[in-house]
## 1
Amino acid sequence: MKKNLMLIFSLLLLTVFVAACGNDKSDNTEGSADAATGDDKAASNGETKKLRISLGLNDKTPLYKSSEKFKELVEEKTDSLNVEIYHSGQIADDRSAIEMLQFGTLEITIPSTAPFTSFVPEYGVFDLPFTLKNTDVVDKVLQGEIGDELAEKASEQGVKQLAWWENGFRQLTDSKRPVKTIEDLKGLKIRTMENDIHLGAWKAMGANPTPMAFTELFTAMQQKTVDGQENPYPTILLEKYPEVQKYLTETNHIYSPFIFLISQKTWDGLTPEEQEIVESAAIEAGEHNRQLSRETAKSALEELKGQMEYNKVSDEELEAFREAVQPVIEKHKSSIGEEFVEKYLNEIKNAE
Ligand code: KDG
C-alpha cells in the first residue's frame, strides 16, 4: 500500500516537473534553443506549440533518426509547431511516458507495443511468440484491419496512435553461455519488457525472467542483476550491449512494432491543418523508419558477429521453443480476447 502511494506521489511530482518545463509560452521566445537537437526556432508569432517526443532508445538508433525525419517533415510545413526529441528515457520510461500522454503533460512517445498492453490488452497479439515470421507478413498484417482496429482501441485510453513504426525481430543475448537448445535456457535470468506474456513465455521455456523498464536494463546487465535480455539487432549494437554481454543467439522469437502515440489532449489542441501535417509526417517517417530499421538490422548483425559469440538456433531446435510456449499462447488468448487473437492469426495465415 505504502509502495503504491509512493509511486503515485513520485508520478505526480514527475508530472508537475515535466509540465513546468513543457508548453510554457515563455520558452517560445526568439532564439529559444531546442534542448535535444540544438536547433534554434524563432517563434513566428509566439503561438508555436511544442511537441516533445520521449524515446527509450539512444540517439544512434533508427528510432531516433526517424524521429528527426518526423521533426524535419513537420517543421518544413509549418512555423506553428516545434518538435523536440528526448532520447534514452531522459523524460520517462515507456509506461510513465504513456501515462503522461494520458495526463497531457507530454505530447508524443514511441514505445514498443509490449508495455502498452497494460493500457490496451489487444496489442498483446504481437507478444505471442513465433507468430509473425517475416517482414512481408508483418507489413500486410499491420497495414490491414488488425492495425486499424488496434489504433482505434488506443483512442479509448486518451492517446492517439498515428502510425506503425518498427522495433524489429527480437534476439537473445546473455553473459553466461551459448544458447543452442531449450535446455541451455534453464535458470538464465532474462530481463523482459513489462508484459505478462513475455514473462510467461520465458518461464515456460525454462528461463528465470525479470520484467524491467528499458531505462534500467544496461545497468542491470553491467551489475549482473540479470544474465541476459532480448531485443532487435540495432538495439543490441547501438546500445552497446557487447560491452556487457558475450553471447548472441538468433531466435526471432517475437516481432516488436513501435507505435507512434500522441496525447489526445495535444491532438485536440492542434488545428485541422496541424493535425494533417503531424499525421502525414508520422506516417511518412514511419516508412523511412521501417526501411532504416531493416537495413540497420542487417549491418548490425554483421558487426555483432565480430564482437560477440553468435549462433542461430536451428529450425528443428526452435520447435522445442515453440512447443514450450503453446500453453502461454492458449492462456493469453483470453486475456487479449479470443476473437481478436483468432482474427490476428487468420490475417497472418492469409498474409503468408
Ligand atoms: O524507445 C523504445 C524503448 O523504450 C523500448 O520500447 C525498447 O524493445 C524495447 C525494450 O526492450 O524495452
## 2
Amino acid sequence: MSKQGIVSLEGVCMNYQDLEGETPALKNIDLEVQEGEFIGIVGPSGCGKSTILSLIAGLIKPCSGQVKIEGKEVEGPSSKVGYMLQQDHLFEWRTILQNVMLGLEIQKKANEENKKKVMKLLDTYGLGDFKNHYPRQLSGGMRQRVALIRTLAVDPKILLLDEPFSALDYQTRLALSDEVADIIKKEKKTALLVTHDISEAISMCNRVIVLSKRPGVIKSSHDIHLSGEKRNPVSLRKAPEFREYFNIIWEELDVHVN
Ligand code: ADP
C-alpha cells in the first residue's frame, strides 16, 4: 500500500443541489497525492475538475467520502492551501508589492521579515524592478507571475492552480507554464493543476489524472517521464514520449465533435 499522501481523497462523491435539482459532479474519487508531486487533472468540460480543487481548498464539503490534508480531514479553508485562478484578481489601486503582501496582511503577518521574503521572491522571479508599479503597467504573463508570488507569499504547502494560463496568449502561456513549473519545484510545493490543455499537463506535471465525463470518475493516471536534458516547454514537447502520452490521453478523453 502506498504511504499516506499530503492530500488524499477517499471515496469522494459530490452532488450540487440547486433549484433545478441535483447535479452529480464527482463519483467515487480516490486520489493520493504525495508531497512534492505536481498533478495535472484533465477531463471534459464540466466533469468536476474544479470541484476537486474546491474540495481540497475546503470551500465545499463532499456528500460522501473524505478529503484529508496531512491525514486530517479538511474542515474549511486553511493557510496550508493556496489557490491560483484563471483571473489574476490583482487590485488595480495597489502596487505590485502591496498586492503580493495582501495575504500576509489578512493573516496579520505583514512584518518586516515577511516583507523581505516577499521582496526576495519578486527579485528571484524577475519582478523586483516592478514592485512599485501598478498591475495595469504589467503584461498578462507578468500579472499571473505576481498572482503566483502573492499565493506563495503566505507559504502554503499545497498549491491549487485552476486554468491559470487560459486567459493568456499562446506564446506567453508556453513561457509562463515553464516558469511556473520551475518556481513550484524550486519552492518545493505540492501542486494540483486543472487544465483543458493536455500538452500543458504533460509538460508541467509528474502525473496526469484523466477524468471521465460528468459525474467525473478517475479514468486513468499516468506517471510522466520525458527524456531530454533541457527542461523547457518547447524541448519537452519534442521528447519522443510526449506524443505517446498525448495520444493515449487524447483517446481517453473521448472528445468527439458530435
Ligand atoms: P470542470 O472544472 O471540470 O469544468 P466543475 O467542477 O466546475 O467542472 O463542475 C462540475 C459540474 O458541477 C458541472 O456540471 C457544473 O455545472 C456543476 N456545478 C459546479 N458548481 C456548481 C454549483 N455551485 N451549483 C450547481 N452546480 C454546480
